Prior knowledge:
Helix content is 78%, strand content 0%. It has helices spanning 2-30, 35-38, 46-55, 62-74, 88-123, 128-142, 145-164, 183-220, 224-231, 236-265, 268-273, 279-289, 292-320.
Amino acid sequence: LRGYILRRIIFGLFILYVIATLNFLIFQVFAPVDPASTVLDPRLTADAMERMRVLYGLRDPLHIRYLRYLRNMFTWDWGYSFRTMRPVVTDLSWRLMNTVLLLGSAMICVIMVGLPVGILAASKRGTKIDLIAIGAGIFTYGVPTFFIQLLFLLFFSYYIKSIIGFTLFPAAGLVDIPPPKDPIAYMANVAWHMAMPLMTLVIAGFGGWALYTRNILLDALTQDYIVTARAKGLSERTVLYRHALRSSLPPIVTIVAMAIPGIVTGAIITEFIFSWPGIGSWYIGGLQEGDYPVVQAVMFMYATLMIIANIVADLLYAALD
């Protein structure tokens, strides 16, 4: 087991190095971006822009930039943003908290709704409950998330307001302007702003989890050990939860582990629609404006988390099998 873990870690570090190198080559060699002409103030003179290029190290030889880039990536320094002139870590920290708050809450709620619905559908196979669960799962899984979110915006923020005179949920933002000074009132205000994007993410996401759980359980319920458990006189509840569900946990845990990096990198469309100040909208802004230190930092962070999630999933898979 120790040898296996060590090999997985070494292989993961190698993959991370390859990804980091490609991340560098994309912006520095294959599609070089000049931030002085895309991000900096266009009113600057040519001499001032050239000094800015020298200040940011853009005139250094390629191998010097590559070594500095690797040092920044693997020490989680990440340099300075061309747009804000602040360290990338400074801008990342508060945006990361907002993204994890929204996406982490959504993932927990999706799992808490999707898994029980899938288990219920599998246990009631062929009944009306199963058909309703399948229909709801296919519908919510097939409808684009942004369409559900736009419908919620239209209904709760505009249609309801025209009837009762006020909105049930804010249409955008993290908190009111100016924000409440009392900590409890501040948290309540954030939760109020988060309610609508959270509901839309849960509605859009639970169907896939429900269908996946149902299919895995139905496959497990056809196995010989389930027939043996029933022949021994065990109750259907015991057969379902202590035999079928336990044997289905490894693939479910793998899917959960693979979804965790997405919590950190953010839901780009959701953050854009609801003006949620998170990682996703920040990343898109970096792509559009040539702020490649930001883009490289987000891509490297996602790759790191994905590799860690893979290793953790492999270990949990073996422990739960």
